[in-house]
Amino acid sequence: MWTMGRKIAAGFALSFVLLALIGVVAFRSVNALTFTSYKVAHTHEVLEHIANLVSLLKDAETGQRGYVITGDETFLEPYRTSVVGIDKVVKDLRQLTADNPNQLKRIEEIESLIAAKLAELKQTIEIRRKGTFEETAKVIRSGEGKKFMDDIRRLTDQMDQEERELLKLRAEEVEAAASAARSTIIYGTLTCLLLITAAGFFITRSLAGQIGMAVRHVHSSSAELQSVANQQASGARESATAMSEISTTISELLATSRQIAESAQRVAHVAEETSAAARAGTQTVLETHESVSGIKRQVDLIVIHMLDLGKKSQQIGGILEIINELAEQTNILAINATIESAGAGEAGKRFGAVADEIRKLADRVGGSTKEIRALIEEVRAAVNTTVMATEGGTKAVDLGPPLFTDLKELIADLDEINAEFETADVALIIGANDVVNPVARTDKSSPIYGMPILNADKARNVIVIKRGQGAGFSGIENALFYLDNTRMLYGDGQAAVSQLIQAVKAV
Amino acid sequence: MTSSVPAAEKLAELRVAFDRTFAVARSSQAADETQDLLFVRVAGDPYAIKVREISGIVSDRKTIAVPSRVSELLGVAALRGGFVSVYSLAALLGYGAASDPVRLLVLCGSKEPVALALSNFEGYFRVSSRQVHATEPSEATPGRVRQAVCVADVTRAVVNIPDLMASIGRRISAYPG
Question: Which residues have C-beta within 8 Å of that of residue A452, sequence separation ≥ 6?
Answer without folding.
Answer: A277, A278, A281, A410, A411, A414, A440
